[in-house]
Design a protein that fits this description.
The chain is built from 3 helices and 7 strands. By secondary structure, the protein is of the alpha/beta class.
């Protein structure tokens, strides 16, 4: 029997209640949100439940929404794949505050290790319980997280780049 999005939504809602929300199709991928306190268990359920079989973590990334309210300024997005039914799913969790954090999923997917490190490196999102959360692409001496939109992309003298086109506002130095 094919894995239907309605079944995924129904089973997750039964198990997690209002900790999973905003179900729907987004660019042909079934998507929903999970609260930060439930995200680890939601992903574990999607992986181990024999009806779901989402055994492949395709991607994990961070997003910065500086214009959103305080509770939705940062997000971690997880993309998973069920190879048997060829079904993809996207789960988003929004993080609160200036020091966003969420539980690691390295105990569920070893591949998330580097993905979480990259997300921390670029966005400053702390993955609680990560075995070695340190810079992976930027220099160790760096004190900022360069993909946060509060930092200008290039020096102000460049004329071929305009921060406004990348969701950043011009900063006065």
């Amino acid at each position: 029997m094919a894995l239907e999005t309605a079944i995924i939504q129904e089973k997750l809602t039964q198990k997690f209640g209002n900790k999973v929300l905003n179900f729907g199709m987004s660019r042909d991928v079934f998507s929903f949100e999970a609260t930060p306190d439930a995200i680890h268990e939601v992903i574990r359920t999607l992986k181990v439940d024999e009806e779901f079989n989402f055994h492949f973590l395709t991607d994990l990334c961070g997003i910065h929404y500086p214009d959103n309210d305080e509770n939705h300024q940062y997000a971690v997005v997880y993309h998973m794949h069920n190879w048997v039914e060829n079904v993809r799913i996207r789960i988003t969790t929004y993080l609160v505050g200036e020091k966003p954090e969420v539980n690691t999923i390295t105990d569920l997917f070893l591949t998330s290790n580097w993905m979480e490190r990259e997300t921390w490196d670029f966005y400053g999102i702390n993955f609680i319980g990560h075995p070695q959360l340190k810079r992976i692409l930027n220099m160790d001496e760096m004190v900022s997280h360069p993909m946060r939109k509060e930092f200008p992309m290039e020096d102000s003298g460049r004329t071929d780049k305009d921060d406004r086109f990348f969701g950043r506002t011009a900063q006065k130095l």
